[in-house]
Design a protein that fits this description.
The structure holds two protein chains of two kinds. Chain A contains 19 helices and 34 strands. By secondary structure, chain A is an alpha/beta fold. In chain A, the strands form twelve sheets. In chain A, strands 10-7-6-18-29 form a five-stranded parallel sheet, with helices on one face. Helix content of chain B is 46%, strand content 14%. Chain B contains six helices and four strands. Chain B has helices spanning 19-28, 50-58, 79-96, 114-131, 136-139, 144-160, and strands at 10-15, 37-42, 63-68, 104-108. A four-stranded parallel sheet of chain B has the order 2-1-3-4, with helices on both faces. Chain B is globular. The termini of chain B are far apart. Classes of the chains: A alpha/beta, B alpha/beta. Chains A and B meet through helix 4, helix 5, helix 16, helix 17 and helix 18 of A and helix 1, strand 2, helix 2 and helix 3 of B.
Chain lengths: 673, 164
């Protein structure tokens, strides 16, 4: 039976029509491609009218196949599949030709673009003829969710889901949840106390009976797919029995070993070898740092064991591997601060009184190493003048080109706190000030009124080499004031570097475990930058917070909640549809050579010993098609990407070469060289 | 009459997760590049069977560009490593058939590397343009150079297998 194919070429306003002669493509398709029953062009195919056009034609002309030449299938394949299904045509009998992202937007000349668009349409028409009507597979959605990262975004996501009645596993690498927010004293622009708004949420997580909190734990491996993921989690040995520990803190108090805390205190303060990062930690159960514990180092001490009233200390404890089954995964892994040593001319790590923003945050914090006093590195002297340097490692071609987005406001907040607590004169050297959200501009005005001094210019150098007696004993900030058009040397007591917000150093590894990718800068890539900022290309995996891009607290919270809402929607539906793109083996053709067996990383192919054939378990197959390509007998077929379909697509793409048209036809047909 | 510049036809086999998305992002960012590469979307570069490449070349393509996720970043864990192995053998076979291996290229592009991918496409087009039209189906038997290459490869095979 001959197929009846409908071809629909979208103008996409002028996005396609400005570069591709869409009328010509439609006309050409009708005249030249076999079995094309109707070919139309339309302003916006994705609009309801455009979809109705397809539906009407399916009914009126009895179309058996549909080709939509428009944008990327990643954007609107679902739309057009639904439109076909609504009109009674199996949704897999539709194929898209990507003539926007791959043609009109990247091609300068109209002729070349139109030619390429025709080739892509011919390929789609060629391929769609061989499509088989497939049925989506329905899987049950496991109502549990894995949240990776216990910062404010992860906390928000976990609480939203748990409050909606669904079980949550919250995995955090550090001994306590809280993330970066727990390190701060105040939050901009309201100057809310960070601990006052965060710690209630933390304890809510700790006490929630639907949240399984796994701190001091890391995600090892993820298998499965949407609805049914299996995650392997390494619960690192705490050396404290969680079921016995009451969190009294006696062990911490009596531990004789003090070490510098590079994580929570950003190197500004100390902790013990057995510790919780901060007093309000959730859970309150401490962890023994085996690299600094005297017992693990020299086999002596055991003070904590002697002191513990409940006998909770266990030096023999081993890492535990937990397997949890979840329906979806939310990544909220957060950010790292730029290593300011990478810019040697700013002197961090060499000049004592150059600080990072995180170090200053800790100093401002009432429960921090200085009890909230802002002092120089000597721990006593209050600075009389401070210079805050913006954009350290961001908006800089040598380090990160992006804007870290929160540092302007961070600088204003720190400026306010420094002036309030020390009365020091505060300078800020900025490239541009970007207080661009609700109440941010007002906060900037407030700081101007309070007398913070703003100098527009990128700092060239921070040095301690004095040129005048007034500069003696000071740090000198060399900067071009671009508003005055003059070089300035500003002598100050303290310099604060606004280091860039960077992706976690191991973000790529985490991404690989769940099958999502990172941008060049290292941020997780969302499914769509505007319309789908929490989903990813891997179904069932969502992102929230700064792991997707630099974010302030309100944005991280909003995204955490948004991710939770998406997950909750899927759970409440109970079932999810998954693509039937899987491979299958024709056992009559299978010679039992077993070449395919080792190619599958998901163990979906098993060898049936007594029949001497291989067989694919559809539920395990992810549809990559590697085994299909490898089978020497051609016995494996990959649904929706069969050899026949791809061959037809190739023939279509090379339509002009095969049929001797287009500018190259003459050359191709000419004999010899 | 002015000589028209040769515009090669190149078939691209791009994986759904990284390189096809990178090509989409190049479009969204309006990064203009050569229109000569026509892209087929596959789920994974591991799906590229040698027959796809041979078919494209036989049907009039002057080159083939295969693009996948970076090694270690495959959406299917490790399938692009299998692509690497298969690709090495394919290039060897192509050489035996008298096809310059530069006509068939394997590149890696993560979803964020639109600019790099656009550049790779432009480079590929330039390379194939320099190599000229392939016209494989018409002339591989008549072309002495290609004939010789085929014979030479057969000899190399024999030597490698110590067949006297």
């Amino acid at each position: 039976m001959a197929e009846r194919i409908g071809v629909y070429v979208c103008h996409c306003g002028t996005n396609i029509a400005a570069t591709v002669n869409v009328e010509e493509v439609a006309r050409w398709a009708k005249e030249n491609l076999p079995d094309v029953e109707v070919a139309r062009d339309y302003k916006f195919m994705c609009s309801s009218l455009g979809q109705a056009l397809i539906a009407d034609d399916i009914k009126k002309h009895g179309l058996t196949r549909v080709v939509v030449a428009a944008c990327s299938p990643h954007l609107h394949e679902r739309t057009f599949r639904r439109a076909c299904a609504a009109a009674g045509l199996n949704q897999f009998l539709m194929q898209m030709a990507n003539i926007r992202e791959h043609v009109s937007w990247v091609t300068a000349q109209r002729d070349a673009a139109t030619q390429k668009a025709k080739a892509l349409v011919a390929a789609a028409v060629g391929r769609v003829r061989h499509h088989a009507p497939l049925e989506t597979m329905t899987v049950k959605m496991n109502p549990a969710t894995l949240v990776v990262g216990g910062g404010i975004a992860g906390i928000q996501a976990a609480l939203e889901l748990a409050d909606a009645g669904y079980p949550v596993y919250l995995v955090e690498r550090e001994p306590s949840i809280g993330g970066h927010m727990a390190q701060y004293d105040k939050t901009f622009p309201t100057l809310d106390c960070a601990a006052c708004i965060l710690t209630p949420r933390m304890s809510e997580v700790g006490q929630h009976d639907r949240i399984t909190l796994l701190t001091w734990s890391e995600l090892e491996e993820v298998s499965g797919s949407i609805g049914n993921f299996k995650a392997r989690i390494r619960k690192k040995a705490r050396h404290v029995k969680e079921e016995l520990c009451t969190g009294c803190g006696l062990c911490i108090e009596k531990c004789p070993r003090r070490v510098v805390d590079h994580v929570f205190e950003a190197g500004m303060g100390h902790r013990k070898a057995i510790y919780t990062p901060f007093p309000q930690a959730v859970p309150k159960i401490p962890v023994i740092d085996t690299r600094s514990c005297i017992w693990f180092e020299r086999g002596k001490c055991r003070v904590c064991e002697k002191m513990c009233p409940t006998g909770a200390i266990d030096y023999e404890q081993q890492d535990q591997i937990l397997e949890v089954e979840v329906g979806s995964i939310i990544l909220a892994t957060g950010w790292d601060l730029f290593d300011c040593r990478r810019i040697p001319q700013y002197g961090y790590g060499r000049l004592a009184n150059v600080f990072t923003s995180l170090e200053l945050e800790r100093m401002c914090n009432a429960s921090g190493p200085t009890g909230g006093r802002i002092v120089l590195r000597d721990g006593i002297t209050e600075p009389r003048s401070v210079c805050i340097v913006h954009c350290v490692g961001s908006r800089d071609l040598r380090y990160n080109t992006y804007c870290s987005s929160i540092c302007c406001m961070l600088s204003l907040k720190l400026g306010h706190l420094i002036m309030e607590r020390t009365g020091a004169k505060v300078y800020a050297c900025y490239i541009d000030l970007r207080p661009n959200k609700k109440d941010y501009e007002e906060f900037y005005q407030r700081l101007l009124d309070e007398g913070m001094l703003f100098i527009r210019g990128k700092v060239a150098e921070v040095t301690d080499v004095a040129r005048t007696p007034a500069e003696e004993g000071k740090l000198i900030v060399q900067v071009e004031d671009t508003l005055l058009g003059k070089q300035r040397r500003i002598p100050v007591d303290m310099v604060v570097l606004m280091g860039a917000i960077e992706p976690r150093r191991d973000a790529r590894d985490i991404g690989l475990k769940v099958g999502i990718s990172c941008s060049m800068a290292g941020w997780f890539i969302e499914r769509h930058p505007k319309l789908d900022p929490v989903a990813t290309m891997t179904d069932g995996v969502f992102v929230a917070g700064a792991c997707q891009g630099p974010k302030d607290i309100p944005d991280a919270v909003a995204q955490g909640a948004a991710a939770a809402a998406r997950v909750a929607g899927m759970i409440s539906r109970g079932l999810v549809q998954i693509e039937p793109v899987v491979a299958s083996i024709d056992e009559d053709k299978c010679s039992g050579c077993r070449i395919c067996n080792n190619l599958c990383p998901f163990n979906a192919i098993e060898y049936i010993e007594d029949q001497q054939v291989s067989r694919i378990t559809a539920a395990l197959c992810k549809g990559c098609g590697t085994c299909v390509a490898a089978c020497p007998a051609g016995a494996i077929s990959g649904a929706h990407f069969t050899r026949q379909q791809v061959f037809a697509e190739i023939e279509g793409l090379l339509w002009d070469a095969l049929h001797g048209t287009g500018p190259q036809a003459a050359a191709a047909a000419a004999p010899g060289r | 009459m002015e000589q028209q510049q040769f515009e090669p036809r190149i078939v691209g086999f791009f994986c759904n997760w990284c390189s096809y998305r990178a090509a989409d992002v190049a479009g969204t960012a309006r990064m203009k590049h050569a229109p000569n590469v026509r892209i087929i979307r596959l789920m994974c570069s591991g799906r590229v069977e040698p027959a796809f490449v041979l078919k494209a070349l036989a049907d009039g393509a002057d080159g083939v560009l295969v693009a996948g996720c970076h090694p270690g970043e495959c959406h299917y864990i490790e399938q692009n490593y299998k692509t690497i192995r298969r690709f090495a053998m394919l290039r060897h076979t192509l050489r035996a058939l008298g096809i310059d291996p530069r006509r068939v290229r394997l590149v890696w592009a993560s979803a964020g590397e639109a600019a790099r991918l656009a550049q790779a496409i432009d480079e590929m087009v330039e390379t194939v343009r320099t190599l000229g039209p392939l016209r494989w189906r018409d002339n591989w038997e008549e072309d002495p150079a290609q004939r010789e290459a085929a014979d030479r490869t057969a000899d190399e095979h024999a030597a490698a297998m110590e067949v006297q």
